[in-house]
What we know:
By secondary structure, the chain is mainly alpha-helical. The chain is built from 14 helices and no strands. It is globular.
Amino acid sequence: MLxxxxxxxxxxxxxxxxxxxxxxxxxxxxxxxxxxxxxxCAWFAAxxxxxxxxxxxxxxxxxxxxxxxxxxEHMLLQFVAPPLLLLGRPVTLLLRSDPGVLPRRRxxxxxxxxxxxxxxxxxxxxxxxxxxxxxxxxTPLYELTLYDGPLHELEHALYLATGLLFWAVVVQAxxxxxxxxxxxxxxxxxxxxxxxxxxxxxxxxxHSVLYHYYAALPPxxxxxxxxxQHRAGAMMWEFGSSVILPVMxxxxxxxxxxxxxxxxxxxxVRAELARRELHGAxxxxxxx
Length: 288
């Protein structure tokens, strides 16, 4: 029964990306004799598994019946899969392996282009992520995607693409033209929380079903549509916070640790300079 819920298109896509990543690693380690961190492979594989879980199997199937499951699908594509994939450092792998299909010089030209600089700018990435979240949940576009298969798949691609742009600013595992400091990234994440809270509150506090698609479903789903909608709204706020807050904490701790190291390093330099001055002064008196 579970096999009947699997989407072959999604499986083929995920396996193809995994095969491409594996080929690049093999090209780098075997062909050029260079190493590649195993943890990057693990992070990237975990990200692909999340994409597979979100779009295929029970989650992908029941997302068409329950808004709460549909919301879980969106959260996985926006908040879980992107940072995991980025920790796999796919752009760095492409640069180091230098495949013939995308030579290093061409990729570097793309990474230095004005378009890429604009797309990866923190303001652009944040705005794209926020706009996608709001417009695809609080406008008729959401219900339209439920009736249009290709548009629905395009929505999923948009979630993943804007998620990658948004989290690239935070993760900073690959080369980026803009690399905000830790405090700036903490603020960047914090400002996304009101957006998630707004969308979640609209769904959770509504007194009627916002998406008639779910209300029109036959029992047992139809009568539970409003309750399920409230559950989906709460999930958006809680899920988003459960990811953003720990990441903010990690960034804060790393920033404080780096600050402490900088202070210790500066103190060590000052102590060494003082020792040399003292040694020089003593040597001068001894010479006199």
